[in-house]
Amino acid sequence: MKKFILASLLYLFLSTLFAQTGEDYKKFIENAEGYSNLYRGTAPLAYKFTHTGTYFAYSPDFQIGTVRYNSKIYTNLMLNLNSHLDELYLFISYSGRYVVLNNDFVESFTMGTKEFHNITLQKGDNTPGLSPGYYEVLYKNDSAKLYKKIKKTYAERINQSASSETNSKLERMFLATNTYHLVKGEKVYGVKRVGDIIRIYPAKRKEIRHLIREKNLDARSNRDNSFAEIIKFVESTSPNTIK
Predict the structure, then answer these.
(1) 230, 208 in Cβ contact below 8 A?
(2) Residue 122 pLDDT more than 90?
C-alpha cells in the first residue's frame, strides 16, 4: 500500500514537472517569435571585479540593431560587442537574460548607426591578411572596404595611493587599441596615418591634401571620420587608381 502511494506521488510529481517544463518551453517559443535560434547562446562571462574603462567596443549601453545570422536577418535586437573577448551579446528583454551569439553563424550586424562584418575562416569567406573576428565597417563600395578593428586589452597597475572606491592601490582596467585596414581586391593595407593612404593612392596626393584642408580633417583626434572621408573621396573620383 505504501509503495503504491509513493509510486502515485512520484508519478504525480513527474507529470507536474514535465507539464511545467512543456509549458515553459511553449512560453519560450511563443515569446521568441522566430528568434529562438539566437536565444540558444551561452551566458556571457561575468566580470566580477571593479575596473576602469569598458570591455565593450564603445559603451556598456546596449543598442538596437540587426543581425544577419546563418543567412537569415533578425531585426529590432538589443546588441553590444565585447571587444575584449570579441563576442556579440544579445539582451533578451522579456526574460532579462543576456546571451553570446555563436560567431560561426553571425555574418554581419548593425549596432545603432554602426555596421560590423564578421571575418571567419570556417566559411571560407575570410579576407586575406585579416585575422578572424568582428570588424567595424567605416566605408565600403564595390571595390574597397575600410575596416576598423577594436581590441580591448585587460591590464593592471599599482597606483601610489589606494582608490576610495576599491580601497586598493591595484587598478584593473581595459585599454583600447584600434587598427585600420583597407581591403582592396585581394590585398589588405594597414592604415595608421594619412601618409599610408597617400602611399596607396599616390596619384591623388594633391587632392587628398586639399580635401584635408577643405574639410578640416584631423586624423590625430578623429581617425574614423578622416580615413573614411579620404578613402570615400579617392574611390568616388578614381576607384581604380591604386598603387
Answers:
(1) yes
(2) no
196: nearest Cα among 234, 141, 139: 234
Please state whether 126 falls in left (phi above 0), alpha (psi between -120 and 50) or beta.
beta
Query: Which residues on neighbouring strands pair with residue 91, listed in sequence order?
Result: 78, 98
* Cα separation values, 28 from 32, 44, 96, 135, 206, Å: 6, 20, 13, 32, 60
Predicted model pTM: 0.82
pLDDT at 5: 43
Q: Cell for 84? A: 575584449
- For 108-174, the DSSP string reads EEEETTEEEEEE-STTS-PPTT--SEEEEEEEE-SSEEEEEEEEEEEEEEE-SS--TTTSSSEEEEE
pLDDT tens for residues 30-56?
454 578 888 888 999 999 999 999 999
State the chain's mean pLDDT as an integer.
85
List the one residue out of 184, 207, 175 whose CA is nearest residue 194: 207
